């Protein structure tokens, strides 16, 4: 009887630990990052300089203010379009953001970790710029996009790319703009690390 009880207790402990690990992985899962090669990026015009501060103390959230995307094929096409616009019309060296996030739940590598951005002038050298693909003035991004964004930030902190005491900002806090849209801005104000003052 003692053996059976001990065995049952051991099984219960194992199940509880497995559940905790699963819950933790779900909450802080590794983001599915689609590489530049996978989405068909053009090479940058020149070598993108490294960030001046690494790990970065800021994460700046943007929206693309365009039609969104909910499949990998459509999201990849949108990211290529953004890169073409940034490089051709704006004359930048590459796509401006470090990462982009689609409503397909994928993260798309822009300039990537450790690279100087072109998304928020005063913060380009000391932040990671994340653009959620879509127009989020009146509606928030779907749960897949939100989870991917939060997982990306958590991954950055866990891998020493983002400081553990980072400040989360909306683009409008760093420039005269309505970005990232009222709905998304109000959403990120509820997230841990959002800071009223940059």
UniProtKB/TrEMBL annotation:
- Which residue numbers delimit the N-acetylmuramoyl-L-alanine amidase domain? 46-181
In its keyword annotation, does this UniProt entry include NAD?
no
Which Pfam families does this entry report, sorted A to Z?
A: Amidase_2
Signal sequence extent: 1-18
Extract the GO molecular function terms from the UniProt entry: N-acetylmuramoyl-L-alanine amidase activity; peptidoglycan binding; zinc ion binding
Q: From the record, give the cysteines joined by S-S bonds.
A: 69-75
The segment(s) forming the Peptidoglycan recognition protein family domain are 31-175
Concerning InterPro entries, the annotation shows: Amidase/PGRP_sf, Amidase_domain, Peptidoglycan_recognition, PGRP, PGRP_domain_met/bac
One GO biological process this protein is involved in is: peptidoglycan catabolic process
PANTHER family, sorted: PEPTIDOGLYCAN RECOGNITION PROTEIN, PEPTIDOGLYCAN-RECOGNITION PROTEIN LC-RELATED
Instruction: Give the protein's recorded name.
Output: Peptidoglycan-recognition protein
The organism encoding this protein is Vespula germanica
The organism's taxonomic lineage, starting at the top: Eukaryota, Metazoa, Ecdysozoa, Arthropoda, Hexapoda
